[in-house]
Structure formats: C-alpha cells, structure tokens
Amino acid sequence: MAAPHQRSAPTRDESVQRLLDDWEWIAQALNRTNRSMGHGDLYPFTLVAPVRRKLSFIHDLVTRAPLDPDAQIAIATAVSVDPERA
Prior knowledge:
Blueprint lengths: L8 H5 L2 H21 L12 H15 L5 H9 L9
C-alpha cells in the first residue's frame, strides 16, 4: 500500500485547472447525494477566480520545486527546534 503522501504521476503532472474542475464535479456530486438524503451540503463553497489563481500559484510552486517529492515531504514534516526554547 502506498504511503498517504505519495501521489501518482498523472496527478502530479495534471494541470491545476483540470484538478480544480475535477474537484468541482466531485463536490457537486457529494452535495447532490447529501441533499437527496435530506442533509446539507458537504462542501458548501465555490472556488472563485482569485482562489483558483492562488491555488494555481501554489500548485506551480510545489510541482516545479527543485526537490523531489520525498525531499519536500522530509522538509515539510521536519521538527524544528527553537534554540531559545531548548
């Protein structure tokens, strides 16, 4: 079984627009299913243009980073020690 942080290559190489469009479709499907059972929306948000641009920027930043995904994860999950508190 793959580690939770591992992604398949197609997702990593996918355009952010495609990922956001897929998320919008999934969110709408989940909301419709929930409504059909008399419940509220699971994801009651709309990703407006400024949010999509910010997500696109972060996606580009991460996918174009010079480090491989394992190195990125190691840095992101490393515990830093504040020398003044040690």
